[in-house]
Every structure is written in structure tokens, then in C-alpha cells.
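#lab-general

N.A. 3:47 PM
ok so I finally got the sequence cleaned up, no stray characters, all 994 residues accounted for. can someone with queue access submit it? mine expired

B.Y. 3:52 PM
send it over

N.A. 3:53 PM
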Amino acid sequence: MPDAGIEHGEQAGQAESGAGVLSLYGEPFDGGFALAEEHQLAADLTAACAVYEELLAVAESVEDSPDVRFLRAHLWSDLASVRLSATDLVGAEEAVECSRALLDNVAGVPMGPRGRQLWLEVRLKTLLAGADLRRRTGRLDEAMDRLAEAARTLHEFDDPEGLRTAELGSNRVLLLMERGEWGAAEEHATALLSTLEETELETVPRVLTALGMICSSTGRFDEAEDHLARAAERFRALGDVGEQHSLLANRAYVAMQRGELDLAERLFAEASAFFERHQWFGNLAVCEQARAFLAGRCGDSTGAGALMTASLARFEEIGASIAAADTMLLGAQLAYDRGDIPELQRLAQGARDVYQAREVYERCAQVDLMLARTLEDNLNRTDHGDHERRSIDNALSLALPAALTLQAARYDFTTAHARHQWLQLADEAMELAFRLAVRRQDQGLLFELVEHRSAGALLALDRTPPSAPRTSPHGRAEDSEDAGSVFPSAAMKTYAPADAPMALGGVAAEAAASAGLRVAPPPKVRMAAQGPGRVALQEYIAGAEFRYQRRIVDDEEVPFWFTDDLTGRPVVQVRLADAGDLFMTWTWAGGARGFGTGQGVAAEVDLAVRELAAALPGTGEGAEGVRRAFGSGALAEPGAERRLARLLAEALWPEGLTAQLRQVSEQAGRPLIRIQPSPRVAQVPWELLAVDADSDVRLIELADVVTTAPMSLRRQATAARPTPDTGTGTGSGTGTGPVVLVLDPRIPGFRADSPLGSVLGPPGSDPELLSLVRRRLDAGAVLPPVSSPAEALRRTDLDRDWLSDVLRKGARRLLYVGHVSGAPVEGGQSEDGTLHLCCGPGTTGLAEQVRGHRPLSAKDLLLGTLPLRADGEPGSVLWPAPPRVALIGCESGGDLRFTESFGLATAMIHNGAELVTATRWVLPTSFAFHRLAGLSESVRPLTEAIVAVDTAHEDPDPVDRLGRWQRERLEQWRSGGRIEHSPLLWAAITSITA
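B.Y. 4:20 PM
back already:
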């Protein structure tokens, strides 16, 4: 269904009140202005137009003078606003041009300060009405020109209440929405609302309505309904009957997008009756367009056709070309449903021609996707014989560039949540491209699709926009004022005394702290490990960038695999991508050669993932989740665990790759598997997979396993991290640099037995833990400096400033054991994951306070103080990570469950770490083992895991050392089935590398 929704231009209902012109015009004009406004609020636009037309007739009968010409310009300007509300676009254009001509005629007449301000205000209204008119009629470049002219005029206008400034901003939002630039539209609307919400301006509910439609069009229905509800309250307070009925249609659109078709039909029907009664034919046409879609969904092809025809006729009559094209696109779908292919092609091409001419490229992509889907459907229905390959090629040539474009549109959004919701819509297009590649049996294309999809997104840390402003075919940039920077500009700063840092004040500071991460398109993925070579999907990327005028990839190129650090050990890089089914690629190096692709059926993958999730403690479940995992979870009973391990292997792991692992192992020794999971399978403990149907052989017994982060994750320059006086490469963990120990820090506001209380128990109560600290003290420098091991535990002075200081001075390792709060996956913002240090409420940071404590978020680690201070520094400078980092806390490695991996573990890699050991899910503490599983208090499974990780990080090959410990635990689990050896703890631990 093409994007739809009722909205009046920013000029609707904004004629001057009688009070505002009383001293200028006298009767009958003062009363006439007031009467027309009353009619507008009552939604009687016909009567309002009649009042203005009558006043114009009177004004034209008065002896001509500059004052009379200005009065007529004022009347024409207000009449243009009313005609726009009534979607009389032809009449509105006449009114706009008449007003503008009269204003230009009197521009040179001497005016006093008050007269000049009134002239400027009417000129602004006329320019904004002209921009709105051109937007509605599809002349988007001309609309942008009018807005730019209005912005220049606004500089001279005294606008104490901010009304005209707000109208200009609102019109920009609507224009961006018309172009399908949802991210930019949301950014502008949100910023505008933050400055207006405390006012009574009627622009506020209009901006709220726009935000509602943006959220609905990008899949965020709860947020959309919230915005529309707030808009409705405002319109009721203003007494604007017409806008209240327009909101009915907007609510109907949200319901339709959400799949609540009966509610949508009822609301559209109610709105349609109102629009027809008041002769608001443009809005009626939008409702008819939507109801045609609903009728088609319900199988009423006759009713759908009639409504579509009526809608198209109305749009064409009023000159709304883009809306008419939307209806043509709907008609094309209806034509396909009834088997009329020539009519489908005619209507679809007609719609696309309009979109292309108006530079609405997102809708061009939607048309091409619709055509590709119809081709796929036709391939499913009919035998194309010898022409099948050509038909598939045609479908791919349409589907893949369009899918890449819709995927890339997410980079316009300023928050990961908005990008996450947008991708839920755009992913359907990418799934179509994967299906067509499978149908063509093109393993090379599938390989490139997976590599491109796994590349991730680049973090935008500079103070410039992540992409350049759009440029029209005429060569002019589109309103440079619309190009917002990543972080607040200097104009938004509040300057402190000369000896203090510059900081943001008021609303700007709150907005900066709450802003999400900006990202940019991924790098080009070069399919050769070294030297020049083919870029993944290069023909399709070029096609997308040419057709739809959108950047798909960054200029930077990266090899699909970094092989600089490989030794003679055989290594296989495995990457997985979600596209309906689960797709896998693998490539061998390090003395072995070969590659392959695999595919997991969606239903089987989803079943296996659900069974795994049921066995794990859930995020946010607390003790009850751990109790359930111990009691009925599959990882707590050997037989159930073996069945789950086999189910996961059957759904996720190709037998051919297992055979290759055996062959390589026999000839060249134990290989290393570097696996980059897709978000859907990021919690899978790959080590546990029972890869042999006839025995209980696990993947960890055939190979060592390490997790890899997306290719776009770029480590900062090593110059940002002071280097200790010893080599600290991935293969070297034994140096003389200090080890930073953050062991169960005391969190302000939380007692030891509270939810954010002690993880390891009272200091001195765990002999193994004290021995660990003693070994580190004996081996070299430890921070914080302590005189006895117990002093390293439950400290109160380990806050973010201390951590920044010790890391900036240089360290070779960081071991953190404590509380980690993961971000909700459904929110899409991995950067909201937090570490809990000793930071009090006065600490400055980007995470919300929790009682008397402010956590350190991944967003802090990445952005540092850039959003908060004019002289801010990035997180990689404030918290440069040592080569090896261990984050032992609940789901500390949950980053890869997100489409955009910017959580704690990957933030450490971004800041310089070469290897981060973290956890895939919520960890049970030793106390939980004692209390919930009945384990003796002398056995401390969590401490044993901490010791194993610490020992591995001191080893030249930490992945191999950790793998040996996990194999030992597996054997103990098999032989005794004791709960302390359960994979519930040790299989949660994984090492992540770039």
C-alpha cells in the first residue's frame, strides 16, 4: 500500500484573527477576518472561502492605493490557506500568485517599522502556502526553493512567539516526508517539537501528527498512536473540528499498517463521510485510496476497483500528482490480482514515471520491488521453461538494487531504535533478493549477499552529517539548513568561563544525552583478501546508487577477511545472515583452502532458537529465571542438553563443513573457527553443537571457536592508547604492563543483597578469588594498587574517571567482574547496555541514573563527551581499551543479538581491544548455584569460570586455553552430570575479536 495519511498544509487554519488587524483595516474587514477564522475552526471551509471572496470584492471596489493593494494581498494569502485546507489546489495557486504579485508591487513603498513587519509576515505566509502547494502537487524542488526563500525572509522578521519559524520547520518536515526521507523528517520534527511543546502554538499538534505518520510509516505503531493521541488533545483544546476529523484518517492509517483492518475501515469510513459532507475532496481521495487497499485485502475486487478509480479521478482533478501515482500503484497491484498483466505494467510504469520526475526515489524503489515480487509470483505459478533464467535475472535486477536502497535508507535515522524498526520493513525486500539468488542457484551471489549483509554499519563520530546534502538535477544543494550535524553545533553551546569547559545547557543538553548513535553506510567489501579485486555486489550497488540517488556503501574498502594476523594454523571464517532462512558462508585460510555456502530453513532455525531460549535465564527475569533454568532448563540435565545440542546442529550447522573440519584436523591439526553470527543466532553456544548424528561429538572437540564482530567495526589508532613496554598482540598476553582489576565494585545506592548488590560475596570469603589476585600481584603491576588481595574486592573508588585515568596511562589487560545490564533487543539500541561501576549521581554521562548511581554505557564508551561538551573527546580517547579485556557479567557479549553491534564488548574492540571475553546470556552466580541448585557452598562455579578466563588472558593463545578449559568442563558434564559442570555457565563464555 503506498504511503498515505491526511494532513493539512501548515497554512491550514492560520488566517489572522480580527484582533490582529483591527487598527489597520476597519470594518467590514476586521469582522470578516474573524468570521472566516470561526468558519475554519468549525471545518466550514466553503463558508470561509465565501467570506474572503466577498471581502476581496469589497476591497477591489475601493479606490486603489498601496494600502488597498496590501489589504488585497493579505486577503489572497489567507484565502490561499483556506483553499489548501479544502484541497482546492488550482484555486490555491491562483490565490498564492495574486498575493505574491500584490506584495511585490508594494515592496518598494515606504513603510514604518510596524508596516514592514506586517508586510514581512504576510509574505512569509504566502511563501509557506506556495511551498505547501508545490509539495502537494509534486513540485518538490520548487517547494524547497520557496522554503529557502521563506528562511531568508524570516531573518528580517520579528517573530517573538516563534509562530512563523515553527511553520517553516513544519513545512520542511512535510516536504521530507513527501520525499520518503523518513529519518531526516523525524530528526527535524523531533528537534522542532522540543522547542515548541511548552507553547500553545497550533503548529505543535501538526508536528505531533507528522511524527505519528513518520512512526507508522516506519513500523513504530505504539509511538505513532501516542503522538496522534497527544495531537488530538491539542486540536480539541484549540476547538479545531476539521483537524480532529483528519486525525481519524491518520488513526485509520496506523490501524491499517498494523493489520487491524476492521478498525481501519471503520475509521476511514467515518472520516470519509465528514470529508464528503464538507467537500474536502483531496482528503476524501486519500481515504478512498486506503479503502481500496482494504477492499482488495478482503477480496472485494469490484469495490476496490471502484474506490481506486474514484480516488485517482479526484487526485488528477486537483493536480496532486504524487498522490495520484500512489493510487496508480495500488491499481497496478489490483490489476495483477485479477491477472491483467498489461494493465499492471501500464499503471506501475505510469506511477514510476511520476516518482522519477518528482525525484521521489524511495517510491521508485517500491515500484521496482512490486514488479520484482510479481515476477517471483509468476515464476511460482507458471513454467517459464528456457526463459526462466532470464526471468529470474530480470527480477533480481529490480529487487536487489531496490532492497539495497531501502536498507540504506535507515542511515537517515538518528537512533538505532528507529533504524531497527525500519529494517523490519526493509528486510522483506532483502529476503526477496536472497530467494531469487537461491532460485538462480548462484552460490557466488549468495556468498556476496552474506558478506555485504554481515559488514555492519560504520559509527559516525565526527561533527558533520554522515552523508552529504542531496543535490537536485539542477545542481543546487537542497537547503543547507536542513543538513544537521551529528552532534550539536557551536551555536547550541552555553559558554562557561574561560577556564571551564564549554557545555550544553537546558534542552540542548538533554537532547544530546538522549540522542542515539549516528551510523553511516558500511564499507565496500572487497572479495580478495589482499590487493585490488571485485567488490561484493558491485553491479547491484552501482545500479542502486544510479537509479535511486542514495549512497549504499562508504568509499572505504575492506577485505572480506583480515588475514594479516594468521599463522600456519588452519582457520575457517564463518558468517551468517538472516534473510527469512538462515544463510551461511565459510572460507578457509592458514594452510587450508576452500569455501562454501549453507542455508538453514527458517522454521527449523526458529524452533531451535526457541528451544535454546527456553533453556536460558531470561533477561530481566532475575532469580526466577535462574531457578527455571536450573529446574526445567535443557542445559541443566545431560540428556536434555544432548538433544538440544543435536537440534541446534541439525538446524544451524552444515554437515559438509563438519566433514571439512575433520579432514583439516587430521592433516594440519586442530583448526580455529571464527564465527560471526547473525542476530537471530547470536546466543547460540556453537561449542556445544553435537555435529555427529551417530555420536556425541561436539564442535569444541573438533576446533577452537572464537566469535568475530562485523567488518565495519574499526579499531582506533594505537596512538590513542599509551602502550606498555612489551608486545601486546593477540598472541601475547604476558607482558609487564599493569593489569586492571575491577572486581565486584560497590554500586552507590545498592546494598550487598539488593539486585545490584554483591556478585562475588563478602571480600575475603572466596579463597580461589584471593589466590587469583595474589597471582596477579606476584606477576607484576596491578591497578588499583592493593596491599592484600581482599582490598581488590567491593571497592568504592572505581568510577569511570578512575578507569579513564588508568587506561589512558596504559594497561595490558582489563578484568571486570560485576553487574552488566543489557539493552532490550526489541529496542534495537545495543549501545544502551551498561557496566555498573562506583559512579554516583553527580557523574556526567549518557545513561539514565539508577537510584543514586549512573551506569557507564556502551554509548559512553563510544561517544565519550562529544555530545555533551564543545571540547568533548571520543570514548576511545577517554577509555582506550587494552589489548585483552574480560567482561564477566550478565549478557555482556549480547551485542551481536542486535542488527547494529555497538554494545559493551564491541565498544571495547572499537576502542582498541584485540580480544574481548564476554558472556552470551545471563550468568548464574555461585550464590545462585548454592541457593537455587542446592550446591555445596564450598564449590564456586562462577569463581572457577573467572579463574579460567583470567588464566586464558595470560596465555599466548587465549582462545586455545579457554577452549581447553571448556573441553574439560564438557567431559566432566558428560561423566558426572553435576550441576556445577553444566554448560549453563561455561558455554555462556565466548571470546570476541575484530
